[in-house]
Specification:
Helices cover about 35% and strands about 15% of the residues. The protein is an alpha/beta fold and about 375 residues long. The chain folds into 2 domains: about 5-20 and about 280-375, Aspartate Aminotransferase, domain 1 (Alpha-Beta Complex), CATH 3.90.1150.10; about 30-280, Type I PLP-dependent aspartate aminotransferase-like (Major domain) (Aspartate Aminotransferase, domain 2), CATH 3.40.640.
C-alpha cells in the first residue's frame, strides 16, 4: 500500500499532525469533490435526484463490505443516536423489562436507553472502572428480564476497547440482545458480527464521511422484530413506485428503517466509504495499530504511559496528564491537533497519518515535559 501517495488525498495533514479523528475525520478530496458536484447540480438545476439517491445505495453497499455483511442488513440514518433510538423504541419493550448500559457512555449511546424509563423499563447503569466498562460487569448486571445490553466497541473519551468476544460469549444462549455503538471503531478496526444484534456507527469519524450520515446494522433474524421509528416515503418496499396514498408495504430488510437522504452528504459518504472499502479494514487496522504502537513506545521516556493493557487498546490513546486543556493548546501551537475528553488528553491515529505525525506529537509532549521541569 502506498500510504504516502494516499496521504496526499487529505488536505488536513498538509500542515497539521491531525490526530483528532475521534472528533471528526478529515474529508478526503474525493468526498469533497462529490459533495461540491452535487451542490452545483442542485444549484443549477441539472441534477438527477434519482442519481443522488443512488449515492445512498452505493454507501450502503460499501459499508456492508467494510463490515462483512449483506447490504440488506444496513439502514441509512442521519445520526448514531437516531440508530439507537430506532432500536430502543422499535423493540417496544414492556414495563418490567431491563436494559443494561454503562453510566459513562457517550450520550448518544445513553440517552436513547434512559428515555425508556418513562415506559417502566428498568435501565441499569453499570459504573465505569478507571475508564473501563468491563464485559464482566455488564454481564453481572443482566438477568432473565434483560432485553438488551448497549455498549460502545471503543470508548470515545479514552480509547478503551470492550472485550467483545467475552461479551458475546456471555450473552450466548440468552434472549438478551446486544447493541454495539461502533462509531469509534467502524472504518478503523475489524468488528466480528457474530453475536451482535444491532450496530450503529456515525460516519463522520473513522469512516471519513460528512456529519449527518450514519449506518445501522441489524442482524437478519432481528429485522422484523423492529417497527420503523419514523415511517416516511422511503419506508415501502419500492419507494419509487409511487409517492401518494396507501398501502404501507414494509420490506423485510433493513431499508425499512431508512429516512430521507441529505443528498450532498450521502454523495460524500459514497466516496468516503468507497475509499475505506477499497483499502480494506484489515490493512487499515494494521496501519492504525502500528502508528498507535509507535506512539505508545515513545511515551515511556517522557514519563507517560497508556491507560490500558494492549488487548484493551485501540487507535485512540487517552493520557492522564496535569492540565490536559493547557497541553492541548500547546500541542495545537506546535501543529499537533489533539483533543480533551473527560479528563483525558486524546490522540488518534488513522491510515492517512504517518510516522512524522507520531514523532511530531512525541516531540511536542517532550518539550512540554521539559518546560514543566524547568518551571519546577
Amino acid at each position: 500500500m502506498n500510504w504516502t501517495s494516499l496521504r496526499e488525498r487529505f488536505p488536513a495533514v498538509r500542515e497539521l499532525a491531525y490526530l483528532d479523528t475521534a472528533s471528526y475525520g478529515p474529508t478526503p478530496l474525493a468526498a469533497l469533490e462529490r459533495m461540491h458536484a452535487c451542490l452545483d447540480e442542485v444549484a443549477y438545476g441539472t441534477g438527477d435526484w434519482r442519481a443522488f439517491e443512488e449515492d445512498g445505495e452505493v454507501a450502503r453497499r460499501n459499508f456492508a463490505r467494510i463490515l462483512g455483511c449483506a447490504s440488506e442488513s444496513i439502514a441509512l440514518l442521519p445520526a448514531s443516536s437516531v440508530a439507537a433510538a430506532q432500536v430502543a423504541r422499535g423493540l417496544e419493550l414492556e414495563a418490567g423489562a431491563s436494559v443494561v448500559v454503562g453510566d459513562g457512555e457517550f450520550r448518544s449511546n445513553l440517552y436513547p436507553w434512559l428515555g425508556l424509563r418513562e415506559r417502566g423499563v428498568d435501565v441499569r447503569l453499570v459504573p465505569f472502572e478507571n475508564g473501563r466498562i468491563p464485559a464482566a460487569r455488564l454481564l453481572e448486571a443482566c438477568d432473565a428480564s434483560t432485553a438488551l445490553v448497549a455498549v460502545s466497541h471503543v470508548q470515545s473519551a479514552n480509547g478503551y476497547r470492550v472485550d467483545l468476544a467475552a461479551l458475546t460469549a456471555g450473552l450466548s444462549g440468552t434472549q438478551t440482545r446486544l447493541f454495539l455503538d461502533a462509531t469509534q471503531s467502524a472504518g478503523a478496526l475489524r468488528i466480528p458480527l457474530a453475536g451482535v444484534d444491532y450496530l450503529a456507527a456515525a460516519a463522520y469519524k473513522w469512516l471519513l464521511g460528512p456529519r449527518g450520515c450514519a449506518f445501522l446494522y441489524v442482524a437478519p433474524e432481528r429485522i422484523r422484530e423492529l417497527a420503523p421509528l419514523a415511517p416516511g416515503w422511503k419506508t415501502p418496499r419500492d419507494p419509487y413506485a409511487g409517492y401518494y396514498g396507501p398501502p404501507l408495504d414494509v420490506p423485510d430488510d433493513a431499508s425499512r428503517f431508512d429516512v430521507s437522504l441529505a443528498w450532498p452528504l450521502w454523495g460524500g459518504m459514497a466516496a468516503a466509504t468507497g475509499l475505506v472499502a477499497e483499502l480494506g479494514v484489515d490493512a487499515i487496522e494494521a496501519r492504525d495499530t502500528a502508528l498507535a504502537d509507535r506512539f505508545v513506545a515513545g511515551l515511556e521516556p517522557l514519563g507517560l504511559a497508556p491507560l490500558f493493557e494492549p488487548a484493551e487498546c485501540s487507535p485512540i490513546i487517552g493520557l492522564e496528564v496535569p492540565d490536559a486543556d493547557a497541553l492541548r493548546v500547546e500541542l495545537q501551537r506546535q501543529g499537533v491537533r489533539a483533543a480533551v475528553r473527560d479528563r483525558y488528553l486524546r490522540v488518534c491515529f488513522h491510515f492517512f497519518n504517518d510516522s512524522s505525525d507520531v514523532d511530531r506529537a512525541l516531540s511536542a509532549l517532550g518539550e512540554h515535559a521539559r518546560a514543566d521541569e524547568r518551571a519546577s
